[in-house]
Write a structure and sequence with these properties.
The protein is 28% helix and 27% strand. With 289 residues, it is an alpha/beta fold. The chain folds into two domains: 2-169, Response regulator (Rossmann fold, 3-Layer(aba) Sandwich); 186-286, LytTr DNA-binding domain (OB fold (Dihydrolipoamide Acetyltransferase, E2P)). The strands form four sheets. Strands 1-3-2-4-5-6 form a six-stranded mixed beta sheet, sandwiched between helices. It has a five-stranded antiparallel beta sheet with strand order 11-10-9-13-12, with no helix packed on it.
Length: 289
């Protein structure tokens, strides 16, 4: 694991993660050509180091090799997606480094993250750099005009992309047929002194604190010991949206979204008095509110 000692400046900052030293060196060299002002503040050899370095340096961009020993790039991205990183509370842009140019690229083209194919070809890298620079510029413009609320151009949630990548890169079934992800159907939770099985279809939202996650239905409030960062990998992302690092809400339970006196987006839940705050990293889910 290598880090740079250069103090933070106005230039965009990046962390590179790849278990192959030569690939890191090549990407660094070609990024210098394509994006001279980009400051590469650290390099990681695996996903665990990448997560640590992102937490330490709070970069604007993270380049993650999708296949690394131990923690993969997808797993690292999942952990990064649960952080509140950056001075503005916004997640870094994710760029995956991959040698797989079929299923994975189809997922990347949805827009929640970008990709670089191995080896890093100059022309394709220029496309990625231009996309990321535009996103960072749009973020700054939104901060200036909206008082800091991020309004990412209708990109699907990173959570959904990571689910898709996990299936496409590691979920091929018999004869190469894509295996359908098996999402949770029931929650085993504590209600008073009893254990109760709660259908996921009935859950309105999940909220975590330091030790427990509250499971809320229209009629039942229960507790489980599973944190949100684990639930997001087990719950269908088409049915539940993560709106805060500690909150998942059922899409069909969203009654509406308003802003409070501080400009924060607040979700109203059908059939319940609870108001759920949307963090800035997930504000793009309700673009235009």
């Amino acid at each position: 694991m290598t880090t740079a000692s250069t103090p933070r400046s106005g230039a965009p900052r990046a962390v590179l993660a790849d278990d192959e030293r030569l690939m890191r060196e090549q990407l660094r060299a070609r990024l210098t050509e394509a994006w001279p002002e980009l400051e590469i503040v650290a390099e990681a050899r695996n996903g665990t180091e990448a997560v640590e370095l992102v937490e330490q340096h709070r970069p604007d961009v993270v380049f993650l090799d999708i296949r690394m020993p131990g923690m993969t790039g997808v797993d690292a991205a999942r952990q990064i997606a649960q952080m509140d990183v950056g001075d503005d509370g916004v997640l870094p842009e994710i760029v995956f480094i991959t040698a797989y140019d079929q299923y994975a690229v189809e997922a990347f083209e949805q827009g929640a993250a970008d990709y670089v194919l191995k080896p890093a070809e100059r022309e394709r890298l220029k496309v990625t750099v231009e996309r990321i620079r535009k996103r960072l510029a749009d973020r700054q413009a939104d901060d200036a005009s909206d008082g800091g609320e991020r309004d990412s151009a209708a990109a699907p949630p990173l959570q959904q992309l990571l689910h898709r990548l996990s299936g496409q890169l590691g979920g091929l079934g018999v004869a190469g047929v894509q295996a359908k992800p098996a999402y949770l159907q029931w929650i085993q939770a504590t209600v008073g002194q009893a254990i109760q099985m709660i259908p996921v279809d009935e859950v309105l939202f999940f909220i975590s604190d330091e030790k427990y996650t509250r499971v809320q239905t229209a009629t039942v409030e229960a507790l489980i010991r599973k944190p949100i960062k684990e639930l997001v990998d087990e719950i269908d992302p088409q049915r539940f949206w993560q709106i805060h690092r500690s909150t998942l809400v059922a899409v069909n339970a969203i009654a509406g979204v308003t802003r409070d006196f501080r400009g924060r987006q607040i979700v109203a839940v059908k059939g319940h008095t609870q108001k759920l705050e949307v963090s800035r990293s997930y504000a793009h889910l309700f673009k235009g509110m």
